[in-house]
Write a structure and sequence with these properties.
The protein is α+β, with helices and mostly antiparallel strands and 267 residues long. It is built from nine helices and five strands, in the order H-H-H-H-H-H-E-E-H-E-E-E-H-H. A five-stranded antiparallel sheet has the order 2-1-5-4-3, sandwiched between helices. The two termini are 41 Å apart.
Amino acid sequence: MMRKFGRALFGTIPGRILIGALIIMGPALVEELFALNDLLTKPFKLLVEWKAEGTLAGRAKFVVLLILYASPLAFITALLFKKDITESEAPNEEPYRSRNNYAKMIAEVKETVNNRQAPMELKADKIEGLFQALIDDVCNLFQIQQSEVRAVLVVNNNRGKHKLTGWRWGRSCSTDQERMDHKAIDKFLETEKTYPIWEEVKEHFDHTDSDTLLFFRNDGTLRLGCLIAIANSIDVESHIEEWEQIVRPFTMLGHMDKLVQFVVNYR
């Protein structure tokens, strides 16, 4: 919410005009507020000048002073107490755990792809099922709809460049969007990380269809990777450990020669 507000304030022309106006008019407004000093201090002057003669007047003045000093302390104490209660009553959110046994699924994919007698369609179905399960986990982990996600497998074209394959899931994308995907993947490969993340992508590509990009690949020279594009901004940071737990087994796929070969040649 705050991120969107900041983007609207600093990233739009009306927002920048508003900020400029506040900067220009700010000193003048502060000067005008100084005129309220006398008005705000008048009750205190009356209280100082109050000659509490007699028992009743003395008690009355004591009550007023007690209210004056105790009210802020009571207010602050109430806020702190309420905060402690809220934190103690807040449920501890259980970390997300995938229902998929990816180690087992990847082992089955490897076994099927290495089997020369296995039909090509069966090999493709195993790969399709593996990545569809991954996309399901992405949607469940980050609480987003399938319609917000698209994914594409990425391979090395043997000339030192990456290539987007025909292995795709989710919403389609235009030729211009593919060019932006290539630029994003170049940025990811420069980091040499095996599962980098890019948030607020729309601040860099005005016409991109996704604001969050997840990428993973094998370590070393790229052989097989996957770009997952999510339409909107998501809270990656609070789920980073769960995401790492899910994606880590997939970074080994690029070391499976038969699988990489099948991905390159099948589509």
